[in-house]
Design brief:
Elements: H1 2-18, H2 21-24, E1 28-36, E2 39-47, H3 50-71, H4 79-85, E3 90-92, H5 95-110, H6 120-132, H7 138-145, E4 153-156, E5 161-164, H8 177-191, E6 197-201, E7 204-207, E8 233-238, E9 244-247, E10 250-257, E11 262-265, E12 270-274, H9 277-290, H10 296-301, E13 305-307
Antiparallel strand pairs: 1-2, 2-6, 3-5, 4-5, 6-7, 7-8, 8-12, 9-10, 10-11, 12-13
Amino acid sequence: MLFGLVLRILFFLLLIGSLPLAAQDELSRYRFSRPAMGTTFVLTFYASSQDQANQAAEAAFRRVEQLNLIFSDYLQSSEISGLSQKAGQKVPVSDDLWYLLNLSKRISRHSKGAFDITVGPLSRLWRRAIRQQEFPDSSQVDRARQLVNYKWVKLYPATQQVKLKKTGMRLDFGGIAKGYAIDQAYLELKRENINIALVDGGGDLFISRQPPDGSSWSVKNLAGDDIAVDPPVALASSGDHYRFLNWNNQRFSHIINPSDGLGIKNSNTITVMAPSAVIADAMASALSIMGVEKGKKLIRKYELEVLD
């Protein structure tokens, strides 16, 4: 009998040791926020202790800041600013930039150029136009358009180098880098054994699982409408809700159509659900320009759900 009791005790101890962290320790909800990438990143997740939560949040925010130093076109010292300044030359790039360059070119092909990271010269014009509420000069728009074409981004896989073929080209990752940062922030949380999380980058989200108490996350789009979600899922909304130019009784969005160089007119807010935030972010931008009807093939290819 004693031997049997010992076996039962050993089995119980092995069972406890094999249980996941969530079953061994009571999880508490934590929330951290920090300005980054021109917006506010908010991390909401469940952890077993304050120390674990602090460490995980710091790792996630550190990763977001690292990516900002690569993808910000506002920083002269960023990696993409340096690449733009060396247009016409072959330049070695980091793994993160290499990954997004390849993904961006693929999405550009599939969207027939509606999504285009070379839109930087036009972005500069429209940022100024919206800031000053003044329509950009047509000759300036025409000159900027001559520098926009994703096909002029030449990739050299053997050496992980990139060349922008025309001097004056400028990259703008504003339609995809934030989504990538959201995904990467969650991966950092996961490395710290955080498995239940919502990562919010200025309204774009990645949700890994529902809260452990059986409740649901409160999720809204840019228009403030409630959205039901089934994690894991990412969401991104796009539209002229916050940034736009009113001119001659027309509303021009900050979202630029590369084909005519103008902010899209009178755009509706759309919300895209996708398996990852990087895809949701890019597709929200592309579908705002293409329109949902013309983007049906894109929606099927990337397994999207679109709310408009």
